[in-house]
Structures are given as C-alpha cells and as structure tokens.
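Hello everyone,

My group is preparing for a crystallization screen and wants a predicted model to guide construct design. The compound we'll soak is coenzyme A. Before spending weeks at the bench, it would help to have a computed complex in hand. I've included the protein sequence and the ligand's SMILES below. Output in structure-token form would be ideal because that's what our pipeline reads.
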Amino acid sequence: MNEHADKLVYRAMTVHDIPAILAIEEEAFTIAWSEEAFRNELINNMFARYVVMEYRSELIGYGGMWIIVDEAHVTNIAIRSDCRGIGLGSRLLDRLRLTAMEYGAVRMTLEVRVSNEHAQSLYRKHGFQPAGIRKGYYSDNNEDALIMWAELAREQQSEEEQQQ
Ligand SMILES: CC(C)(COP(=O)(O)OP(=O)(O)OC[C@H]1O[C@@H](n2cnc3c(N)ncnc32)[C@H](O)[C@@H]1OP(=O)(O)O)[C@@H](O)C(=O)NCCC(=O)NCCS
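Reply:
Good plan to model first. Here are the tokens for the complex, ready for your pipeline.
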C-alpha cells in the first residue's frame, strides 16, 4: 500500500458519508451503530470528531472519538473488510492521534473486546497499554471490555509525519 499512500485522503465525516459508513459498520461490529447514532454524533455532539479515509474516491475506513478537555475517547475505528491487513488501520489510528493532538488531547483511551486480538495488537503498536476491564460491557454476549490508554507524546511521530 505504501506506493499508494499519497492517494489516501482523510477528511472530516459528514452526514452524506453515513450510507457508506453503515455498510462497513455492519460488517465490522456485532453491535452496529445506527444511522441515527452517527447522525446524532455529527450534528449534536460538540465533543465528537469523526474522520473518514478514502482511496480513489471510495470510503474504505473511518474512526472517531470524543475529545473532552485533554482526553480523547475513541468510539470506533473500522476498515472495510477487503482492505484490512495492509496497514490502513494503523494509518487511520495515526490520523486520529494527530487530530486528537490538534484539539489539545494529551492522552487517548478506548475499550476493545477482550477477544479482539487484531485490534488489541494494533493499539499496542500505537502505544496503548491495558488499564483495566469493564465487566460485561458488550450487551450481545456479555463480553468484557479491555480499557486501554495511550499518552500522545509529540515526539511519537507517525510514519506519515516522518515522510513529510
Ligand atoms: C482493527 C482494524 C481497524 C485493523 O485495521 P487493519 O487495516 O486490518 O490493520 P493494519 O493492517 O494497519 O494492521 C495493524 C496491526 O493490527 C494487527 N493486525 C491487523 N490484522 C491482523 C491479523 N489478521 N492478525 C493479527 N494481527 C493483525 C497487527 O498488529 C498489525 O500490525 P502488523 O501488520 O505490523 O503486524 C480492522 O481489523 C477492523 O476494521 N476490524 C473490525 C472493526 C474493529 O474490530 N475495530 C476495533 C474496535 S475496538
């Protein structure tokens, strides 16, 4: 994907993206967010910041967070299933980190299913450390959530920043 990296476009999510987002959301998550949930985030939640990733004008990933004072709480991150495993999730997380820092966040947190080893591995690579468990957090199967935190150190440069 590296030779195509310059063709990746990141921009703020808008309500017009919701149909494409829902298609990815439904394949990515057992408990998928509804159109209404995304709409509410984009229109009514002043703390929410959502980013989409496009390749050749196709929406292939998205992620978002709530930034409250100096903490960013990641709400979701997903890559279209046919585009996974080639570094895009990592790039998207880099972008979320940069956005969080631009808005003044100095640390970032998220919850991840204890069984979601791919995502946990991605987060560990980006400096997230396990910090606790929320028992029975996921209502579909009562699965626990692992809570992870990362410090957003300025010197922790992303691949993208290093190429500039
Ligand atoms: C989690 C997700 C966003 C990762 O995106 P991705 O584009 O596949 O990830 P990348 O290709 O950038 O891989 C980044 C790291 O994730 C881990 N990873 C990704 N795919 C993996 C796999 N099949 N097996 C093991 N680890 C994997 C690895 O640590 C990888 O780093 P490496 O390539 O240096 O080993 C993607 O799998 C996804 O959308 N999953 C469904 C939604 C989801 O679970 N979101 C997270 C909710 S908390």
